[in-house]
Amino acid sequence: MDMVPVVEDGFKHDFSKEPVDAYVEDGFVKARHTTLGADNGIAIAMALAIFDDATLCHGPLRAIFTVEEETTMKGALNLDAKYLQADYLINLDSEENGYLYVNCAGSADINISFNVNRVEVEDCDSFTFELSHFTGGHSGTDITTGNANAIKVLASVLDNLSDDYDFFIQDIDGGFVRNSIPAKAKVTVSVPKCDSAEFSNAFTQCFNEQKSLYADTDKNAELTIAKAECKEALSYTQSLDLIHLLRSLPSGVARMSPRYRGTVETSVNLGTVRCTKESISICMLPRSLNKNALNDMIKTVLAQCFLLDNVDAEVGNEHEPWSSPDCNRLIDVLNDSSVEVTGKPFTITALHAGVECASFARANPSLQLVSIGPDLFNPHSIAERVSIEGTAEIYEIVRRSLAIL
C-alpha cells in the first residue's frame, strides 16, 4: 500500500513477492538495497496498532486505507462519501515530526512523446554511458535539497559535448517513477570512428565537471562506459533536438511559498525518460500549493514541448491543492496532546507533496482534517529511513487525542 518501489543499482527485488529487508540502525528503521515503504506503511501500522489497543478510550473510529496514493489517487477519488461521515479525520501520511499540515500541493501528470525517425549508422563506434548512484529522493519533500537529477545531468553532458563532436543517440533511459528524483540515467550513442576514443575521454571529463556541481549532495555518483552495438539511431538533428529538450525542460523548485516560510509553493520533476523504436517518452510531475500556479507550470512545460514539431504532450491525473482552516477543535486537541508528549505544540504549515486530504475534504466539506506523521527521511529512494522515537511520539499524540475527541 502507498509505496514507491525503488531498487539499488546492481540488485534485483520483486516487490510483489519478496519482503523488504528491514533493519534497525542508529534509532531508525531502514531497508537494504530498496525503498523501505515507511512512506506510508508506518501510518498503516499505527492505525492497526490503535485498533489493537484494548486500553484506549475513544468514540467510534474508522480507519481508511486506499490504493494508488503514489500514482493515480484512485482509492481516495472513488471512496464512497458515506465512509467520511464523521467529525474529524487525522491523516498520517506526513513525514516531519512536530509539523501539522493544513495544506498540501496539487499535481498533474505530463506525458511527453518525442517521435523519432531512425537512420542507419555507418563507420561509427557505439558506447553506453551509464550514470548511477545519485542520491535521488521524493520529488516533493526532497525537491529543496539540491540533489542532482540524473537525467538532467546526462542531458547537460551531452549538450556540452555537442559543441565539439557529432554523435547519434540510439537509446536513452532514466529514472524510476515520475514522483522520484532520478538517481540514474543511461544513453547509448554512436560516434564516428575517428572521434570515438577522444569522445569517451571527453564524456568522462564533462561528467566529472557536472559531478563537481553536486559534490555536497551526490558524492557517490558514478559513470560507467561499455562498448555497444548499434545499427540504427536518431539522426544527428533529432539527437540534438532531444538533448536540447531534456536540458531546457524545467525541473526543480520554481517558487517558494510567500505564506509558509521555508516551504516550496511550486515545483516540477522530470521523472523518467524511456525509449522505444518509434518514440521517446518523458514523464514529468508538476506540484503546487496554488491552483493557478500549478496551471501556469503546466502551461510552461507544454510551451517548451510545442517548440518542436515532432513532440506531443498531454496532461492527465490532475489533483487540486488542499487547504483547510488552521484553527479548529481538532488542531487544539492535537496541540494539547503534543505539549504533553513532546513539550511543545505543532508548527502549522503546508506540505509540498500530495496527500489524500483534498479528496476527503471535497467529499465532506464540514470535516475537520489535518495531516501529521513521524520523521521520515529520503522517501522514494534507497536511503529511506523512519525515526523510531518520532513514530512513538506521533502514536502517543494520536492515542491521547482520540481519548478526548
Which terms would index this structure?
405 residues, alpha+beta, 5-stranded antiparallel sheet, 4-stranded antiparallel sheet, 9 helices, elongated
What does this molecule look like?
This protein has helices spanning 38-51, 74-77, 150-161, 196-213, 236-248, 291-305, 329-342, 357-363, 388-404, and strands at residues 22-25, 28-31, 88-91, 99-104, 106-115, 118-120, 124-132, 137-138, 168-174, 180-181, 185-192, 222-228, 232-234, 252-256, 264-275, 279-288, 311-319, 322-323, 347-351, 368-371, 376-377, 385-387. It is of the alpha+beta class and 405 residues long. The strands form seven sheets. The protein has a five-stranded antiparallel beta sheet, covered by helices on one side. Strand 14 (252-256) and strand 15 (264-275) form a beta hairpin. Helix 3 crosses helix 4 (196-213) and helix 3 (150-161) crosses helix 5 (236-248). The protein starts with 21 loop residues before the first strand and ends with a helix. The mean pLDDT is 94.
Q: How are the secondary structure elements laid out?
A:
Layout lengths: L21 E4 L2 E4 L6 H14 L22 H4 L10 E4 L7 E6 L1 E10 L2 E3 L3 E9 L4 E2 L11 H12 L6 E7 L5 E2 L3 E8 L3 H18 L8 E7 L3 E3 L1 H13 L3 E5 L7 E12 L3 E10 L2 H15 L5 E9 L2 E2 L5 H14 L4 E5 L5 H7 L4 E4 L4 E2 L7 E3 H17 L1
Parallel strand pairs: 3-20, 4-19
Antiparallel strand pairs: 1-2, 2-22, 4-18, 5-16, 5-17, 6-13, 7-11, 7-12, 8-10, 9-11, 14-15, 15-16, 21-22
Helix pairs in contact: 3-4, 3-5, 7-9
